[in-house]
Specification:
Largest sheet: none
Strand content: under 5%
Radius of gyration: 18 Å
Helix content: over 70%
Order of helices and strands: HHHHHH
Number of helices: 6
InterPro entries: HemJ-like (IPR005265)
Catalytic activity: protoporphyrinogen IX + 3 A = protoporphyrin IX + 3 AH2
Keywords: Cell membrane, Heme, Iron, Membrane, Metal-binding, Oxidoreductase, Transmembrane, Transmembrane helix
Shape: flat
EC number: 1.3.99.-
Function: Catalyzes the oxidation of protoporphyrinogen IX to protoporphyrin IX.
Amino acid sequence: MIDASNENSAGQAMKRMTIGIVVLVVLTALLYFAAPDSFYPWAKAIHVIAVISWMAGMLYLPRLFVYHVEAEKGSVQSETFKVMERRLLRAIINPAMIVTWVFGLWLAWKGFGFQGGWLHAKILAVLLLSGLHGYLAGAVRKFAEDRNEKPARHWRIVNEIPTLLMIVIVILVIVKPF
């Protein structure tokens, strides 16, 4: 069972995360309006930081599921995994994905005018990663309700998908093969 102190600390974590996002938005807007000519490299930096955060969460969450499957339903371990999964999704993965998309689309428009086969392929790969994100978010809900029916092997395989997509995306961005 999750006690009131865990719920309170979760509420505090969400509050801190919201404040952090608001601060990021305000500082980004100030930077954009104060120095629009030098905003592009800052946008790139924020985009890369968000991508790293998103990928870290996307690589860690399925690994948590592998361990969660092995915990007995209703046990202290299972309840701990539920809290960890929910916080990881809400406090790191979701905001990082949003920031990644917002800055990524702005960079694609400003830097490339949405032109280039490599860019279209990259956007497709990021859409696939976003679809996986949605699948994992659904799994967090199922685990929270003790309704997961997937074995640990499934989550081990799913754990490899973000890595493969990341490799494709990095090659497309750096090499620009077409």
